[in-house]
Design goal:
The protein has one helix and eleven strands; from the N terminus they run E-H-E-E-E-E-E-E-E-E-E-E. It is mainly β. It has one domain. Strand 3 (about 45) and strand 4 form a beta hairpin.
């Protein structure tokens, strides 16, 4: 039986993002900008604690469950991918806190993208840095499919 590849991180642009892009294209609003991130915990199947699995990201999410931190996002775009730098400063939490979700919010404070990963810990004595990647569904032209 073939082995399935484990997913360690996933990201999704939400329907709200695409709706805003569509409206902006016809002059009914502004393009969404990645402004803020929020860290939390959810969308994880831990039936087998030794082998947690990421659950699908619903396209209509409006908030990040068990949110514990908000910060400004640094992002760069290249070749169909936005790489986000999300820093959670030392001293943000008073006790170790488990997290596995980063929500990306726009200038209207609306959730437009979600990234999930296998769980990590934020501790009171260390800064935590996450680099979620949001991949745009861009088709390649030509390609090596001969």
């Amino acid at each position: 039986m073939p082995e399935t590849q484990k997913t360690y991180q996933q990201s999704k642009l939400l329907n709200r993002y695409y709706d805003k892009i569509g409206r902006a294209a016809v002059g009914q609003g502004a393009c969404p900008h990645f402004i803020e991130f929020r860290a939390g915990f959810g969308l994880l199947d831990e039936c087998d604690p030794g082998d947690p699995k990421l659950l699908p990201i619903p396209p209509d999410m409006t908030e990040i469950p068990r949110e514990f931190y908000r910060g400004l996002i640094e992002a760069e775009y290249s070749n169909g991918t936005i790489l986000c730098k999300c820093e959670i400063p030392m001293g943000t939490v008073s006790e170790p806190t488990r997290y596995n979700m980063i929500g990306i919010y726009d200038q209207d404070t609306e959730l437009i993208a979600v990234c999930t990963m296998l769980p990590d810990w934020v501790t009171p004595t260390e800064m935590n840095r996450a680099y979620p990647a949001v991949i745009f569904p861009i088709e390649t032209v030509g390609g090596d499919n001969a």
